[in-house]
Amino acid sequence: TIATDASAGKNITVTGNIVYNTRPDKTKPDTDPVNVKAGTLGLVAGNIKIADDGTSAHNHPNREIDAVCMAGSQTVAGSFGVNYYNYGSVGTLKVIGGLIQSNRGPVGTFSGTSITHGYSKDYSYDTRLAQNPPPFYPTTGQYDRLSWRTLPN
């Protein structure tokens, strides 16, 4: 787990891909050795921001983040979002893990139903995280399942 002082508004900026070295296999149970071997990562901060390409064009290359991300705290209304989401080209933001945020952060802009800037979303929940969160990740030990849907690969 990578954590900042979220209550003091400290942030994390992701400037590249963060991918599992050993990927979990969604076709096997969470307790299968291949899924137990695959690590998990947690990011905790006041805000978690996804960087663009770092140029004045603010293009958004395809990006993958394999982690459960928590933005905000009891005193800081943080969010998971994209820097310069309203400029530049469109990419795909793939998240394998989970998102927890006080406020929904901007990821892209749309014209009708078409994305025009920022990222289109490809988010998948890593079911292993419910029973085995990343090391030292803040948990309550209590979860309320409001809804659940398994999506095909």
Order of helices and strands: EEHEEEEEEEEH
Structural class of the secondary structure composition?
mainly beta
Percent of residues in helices comes to under 10%
Total number of beta strands: 10
Low-pLDDT residue intervals, each spanning 5 or more residues:
none
Structural shape: globular
Q: Helix tally?
A: 2
Terminus-to-terminus distance: 27 Å
Query: What share of residues are in beta strands?
Result: 25-35%
Helix/strand layout:
Elements: E1 2-3, E2 11-14, H1 33-37, E3 42-45, E4 47-50, E5 63-65, E6 68-71, E7 80-82, E8 90-101, E9 108-111, E10 114-125, H2 128-131
Parallel strand pairs: 1-3, 2-4, 3-6, 4-7, 5-8, 6-8, 8-10
Antiparallel strand pairs: 9-10
Short description:
The protein has helices at 33-37, 128-131, and strands at residues 2-3, 11-14, 42-45, 47-50, 63-65, 68-71, 80-82, 90-101, 108-111, 114-125. The chain is mainly β and 153 residues long.
